[in-house]
Design brief:
The chain is mainly beta. It contains 2 helices and 11 strands. It has 2 domains: 31 residues, no CATH class; 126 residues, Immunoglobulin-like (Sandwich), CATH 2.60.40. 25% of the residues are buried. Bound molecules: copper (II) ion.
Length: 175
């Protein structure tokens, strides 16, 4: 129990508490957010703020499977949109990048890692009801074939934002 009169009598304690809170707020985006279910770890889900009127938003993350059997991401749900799909990017015969739905779920190989990132696999939130806003995380549920439903939270960067700090590799090109 915190006695508020104690704060009044010792104002320095109050100042320290405020400073600690400010520090934690600054530190939060850099810390890796992990969500675990069985052998799976979902790391640092993130999305970008969308321009006014946008109907879709993308979601990215890294999914690790420490188990000895593959699992599959089958479905995604979030209150921010009417529906959500799992997409991949592909180059069509005219050399244009297009996105396609991943049929039958996205496999997470045994002992493997799948990275959802700009230009590759991503989640697509379609029919935005509550468009993502910078700095306002939103909740979603990922449904895996074996691990079951996993509640996660997406960090939201600015419109031009890349992966949040701590997402090593997400901004790498080539190779
Ligand atoms: Cu897409």
């Amino acid at each position: 129990m915190v006695n508020s009169r104690a704060f009044a009598r010792f104002p320095r304690i109050g100042t320290l508490a405020v400073a600690a809170a400010a520090f934690m707020a600054l530190a939060a985006p850099a810390s890796a957010q992990e969500f675990k279910a069985g052998d799976l770890t979902v790391e640092q889900p993130w999305s970008r703020a969308t321009p006014a009127g946008a109907q879709v938003a993308a979601g990215y993350m890294v999914i690790r499977n420490a188990g000895s059997a593959p699992d599959r991401l089958m479905a995604v749900e979030s209150g921010i949109s009417g529906k959500a799909e799992i997409h991949t990017m592909a180059v069509d015969d005219k050399g244009v990048m297009t996105m396609r739905m991943v049929e039958g779920g996205l496999e997470i190989p045994a002992g493997g890692t799948v990275e959802l990132k700009p230009g590759g696999y991503h989640l697509m939130f379609i029919g935005l009801k509550a468009p993502p806003k910078e700095g306002e995380p939103f909740a979603a549920t990922l449904s895996f074939e074996k691990a079951g439903p996993v509640a996660v939270e997406f960090a939201v960067t600015g419109m031009a934002g890349g992966a949040p700090a701590g997402m090593g590799g997400a901004m790498k090109h080539g190779g």
